C-alpha cells in the first residue's frame, strides 16, 4: 500500500476538512466526502511540514471502520522498515495523500478515509478490503525530506543543467537523501522508489524526466 503547540497536548483532536470531493449520489444530489484527521501526538518542534512532492518516511496501520479488523501493517512489511513514498503523486491512495499533508516529523495521526478516497466500489481483494469500505489509518511520520518533485530539488538533481533528469541523476539524489537521513534500510527501497518515479513521470518513455513531466506545480518555474 502506508502541530501546533505543546499546550494543545496529547490526545488533541483536530478534525480537518482535508478535501471536499463532490460525488454524485443516487438521484443526482451532490455529497461532500472528506478525510477526517485526529492528531494523536504533536512534537513541540514542528518543522518541516510535509507538502506535495516531499519524500516521506512513515509507519502506518490500516483498519476497516466496519469492524475494526486490521488489513495492513507497515511494520510487518519490508522487514519492518518504515515506508518511503513521495507525497501527493499517487504512490498511496488519495485519502492518505490528503491525510499526510502539513504533517511534521514525530507527529502521529488517526485518519478516517471514505470509500471514494480509498478503494471505492471495487474494493481491494489482495488487501481484503470489501467494496465501499471506509478505512481508518494510524500514522506515525518519521522524516520529511525534499522529494524529487520540488523545483529546488530538480535543480539539485540536474547536475548537467540540461533541463531533464536521467536515471543516474535521480539515483544519486536518492542516495544522498538517504545518507543524510542516517537510517539503515534495505537496498530495495532505493530501487523501488526510483522505478516508481520513472513509471509515473517518464510519460514519453525516453528514459529521462523532462522539466515539463517533472513539474507538478502550476506556479513553479524551472
Query: In CATH's first tier, which class of the largest domain applies?
Result: Alpha Beta
Helix content: 10-25%
- What is the averaged pLDDT score? 79
Which stretches are poorly predicted, pLDDT < 50 over at least 5 residues? 2-31, 216-222
CA distance, first residue to last residue: 32 Å
- Tell me the Rg in angstroms: 18 Å
Overall SS class: alpha+beta
Largest sheet: 6 strands, antiparallel
Tell me the number of structural domains. 2
What is the tally of helical segments?
5
Q: In total, how many beta strands?
A: 10
Strand content bin = 15-25%
CATH-defined topology of the largest domain:
Chitinase A, domain 3
The global form is: globular
CATH architecture of the largest domain: Roll
N-to-C order of helices and strands: EEEEEEHEEHEHHEH
Describe the SSE topology.
Elements: E1 21-24, E2 30-33, E3 36-41, E4 55-64, E5 70-73, E6 83-86, H1 94-99, E7 108-113, E8 135-145, H2 151-157, E9 164-166, H3 167-181, H4 187-201, E10 208-210, H5 211-214
Antiparallel strand pairs: 1-2, 3-7, 4-5, 4-6, 4-8, 7-8, 9-10
Overview of this structure, please?
It catalyses: [protein]-peptidylproline (omega=180) = [protein]-peptidylproline (omega=0). One of its GO terms (molecular function) is peptidyl-prolyl cis-trans isomerase activity. This protein is an alpha+beta fold and 222 residues long. It has 2 domains: 36-145, Chitinase A, domain 3; 151-214, Recoverin, domain 1, CATH 1.10.238.10. Helix content is 21%, strand content 25%. The protein has helices at residues 94-99, 151-157, 167-181, 187-201, 211-214, and strands at residues 21-24, 30-33, 36-41, 55-64, 70-73, 83-86, 108-113, 135-145, 164-166, 208-210. It is globular, with a radius of gyration of 18 Å. The two termini are 32 Å apart.
